Inverse folding.
């Protein structure tokens, strides 16, 4: 199986991303986020490992990509997860791109990305930093950098003239919807785009969340297992509940004059085709 693959090859109607390729230097992720969707289809996801013969294979695959192709790093793991400190696969891949005409979108939760500012300044790229909570990071994302470190990364990227967007993702009802608004206030001066997404339940991730927050078990099971609806391979909240969670973010982003989009929400009022992932920021 190729390492650089078309993103969303099933052409899901839920996805409004522009055409792009996806690359994960690692299989699995050490951030161990409770809500992660990829644990449902990647074996031993929380025991991450580097891809075999990574550099040799991606160097060969790059030669087959059309010029100006958009490559997303990464969509089912974090390219700057803890393994990157040891293997440096993400950095080595970026080194291959210098002086080549590809567009790179980096999606991460880690301030380790600041190590590679020297490369980012010489690439056609944009960075999307994912933030879920200010106060619950150690519980929701036990292997990921703190909220403060992510905010510092956003500010440093901004000062280095690297286009930055923020993913407020996922918005979990009854848990983080209030502080998500506070986060938007804090990042607004430094970002050009916001992507928001509600939590879509899968059996394994819902169990992890309810085990970690037992006081929310009945509430979430009512919302998802009894009141939710199946879309694609996940259980969604009712449309009206998702609208109520997202609309305050949409209105606040509008007040700040920041571009706004949602991810796989199927709510037409918030859709911004070709802009949802922030890749439009790449010049």
């Amino acid at each position: 199986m190729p390492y650089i693959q078309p993103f969303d090859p099933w052409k899901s109607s839920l996805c409004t991303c522009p055409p792009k390729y996806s690359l994960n230097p690692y299989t699995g992720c050490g951030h161990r986020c409770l809500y992660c969707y990829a644990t449902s289809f990647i074996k031993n996801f929380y025991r991450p490992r580097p891809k075999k013969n990574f550099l040799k294979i991606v160097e060969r695959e790059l030669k087959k990509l059309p010029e100006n192709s958009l490559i997303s790093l990464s969509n089912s793991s974090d390219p700057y997860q803890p393994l990157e400190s040891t293997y440096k696969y993400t950095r080595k891949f970026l080194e291959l791109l210098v002086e080549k005409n590809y567009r790179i979108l980096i999606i991460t939760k880690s301030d380790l990305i600041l190590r590679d500012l020297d490369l980012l300044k010489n690439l056609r790229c944009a960075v999307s930093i994912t933030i879920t909570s200010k106060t619950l990071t150690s519980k929701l994302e036990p292997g990921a950098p703190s909220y403060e470190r992510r905010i510092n990364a956003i500010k440093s990227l901004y000062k280095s003239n690297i286009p930055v967007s923020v993913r407020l993702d996922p918005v979990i009802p009854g848990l983080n919807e209030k502080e998500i608004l506070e986060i938007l206030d804090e990042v607004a001066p430094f970002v050009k785009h916001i992507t928001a997404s509600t939590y879509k339940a899968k059996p394994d991730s819902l169990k992890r969340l309810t085990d970690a927050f037992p006081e929310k078990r009945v509430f979430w099971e009512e919302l998802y297992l009894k009141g939710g609806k199946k879309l694609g391979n996940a259980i969604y909240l009712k449309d009206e509940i998702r609208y109520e969670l997202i609309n305050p973010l949409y209105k606040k982003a509008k007040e700040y004059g920041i571009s706004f989009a949602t991810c796989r929400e199927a709510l037409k009022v918030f859709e911004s085709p070709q802009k949802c992932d922030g890749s439009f920021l790449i010049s």
